[in-house]
Amino acid sequence: MCFQTDNGREFDNSASHAFFATHGIALRHNCPYTSQQNGRVERVLRTLNDGVRTLLLRAAIPLSFWPDALVASTYLLNQRPCKPRQYSTPFELLLGTLPDYSHLRVFGCLCYPNLTSTAPHKLAPRSVCCVFLGYPLDQKGYKCYNLESKCVIVSRHVYFNETCFSFVQGQTSSAPAQLCTPCQSDEVLIPVEPRLPRRRAPPAIPRSPVSNVTE
Predict the structure, then answer these.
(1) Minimal CA–CA distance to 165: which of 113, 121, 109?
(2) Is 77 helix (H, G, I), strand (E, B) or coil?
(3) Secondary structure element (H or E) that encloses residue 132, with its range
(4) Range of the domain at 22
(5) Cβ proximity of 146 and 169 under 8 Å
(6) What is the pTM of this model?
(7) Is residue 83 domain-shared with residue 140, that is, in the same domain?
């Protein structure tokens, strides 16, 4: 078999050469600045980039979270049916079993992980407002980003509010702004200013007709 890639050093190194030589795989490179020779790979990369862009813009998440969006986009792509493979998913082709979609959640939505086991005392909060950042690769759970401590919490028991997005503050006009009633009190959201009732003008007093007096 043959493995063709670009001239990136992540594949053209001694470790990769030793691995390919051990398994009888020939390593080939495309011509410099000729990415079209890897057309299938470039098309998959475009699909992943479209997924990353959609996930970030849909939830108004900062661009610094693009690695999490890339992992989530790849995870969803492997769960999606593939038309050239008779609508089989890559997950099914690799593992021989159908994927389970019941655990999928909306990327970037508001979530509350269960923190009972790490609570300092009985009266401490049992959860905290977080942002859902996808699925960990080596654990069966969810990645939740704590907006206060700036750390990622991995938990299995998480409550999701898939209609609210915590990164609404500072978003541009192109990003969606969906606020629901339970989330308007959160300090990370844009406060909704109450609309004052418009003052109605007083009704006009009809003037009595002035009769023309002739001398």
Answers:
(1) 109
(2) helix
(3) strand 130-132
(4) 1-33
(5) no
(6) 0.67
(7) yes
Q: What is the pLDDT of residues 138-166, one digit of tens each?
A: 889 999 999 888 999 999 999 999 989 98
| R_g (Cα) of the chain, nearest Å | 28
CB-based burial of residue 149 (10 Å sphere; 0-12 exposed, 13-18 middle, 19+ buried)?
A: exposed
In the chain, the number of structural domains is 2
pLDDT digits (tens, 9 = 90+) for 119-130: 888 888 888 999
Task: Name 146's bridge partners.
Answer: 130
131 in the same domain as 48: yes
Express each pLDDT in 1-38 by its tens digit. Answer: 888 888 888 888 899 999 999 999 999 988 888 888 88
For residue 75, the surrounding DSSP H or E stretch is helix 66-79
The verdict on 28 and 57 lying in the same domain is no
Tell me how far apart the alpha carbons of residues 66 and 49 are, in angstroms, rounded to a whole number: 10
Nearest CA to 165 out of 84, 87, 55 is that of 55
Residue 20 DSSP symbol:
H
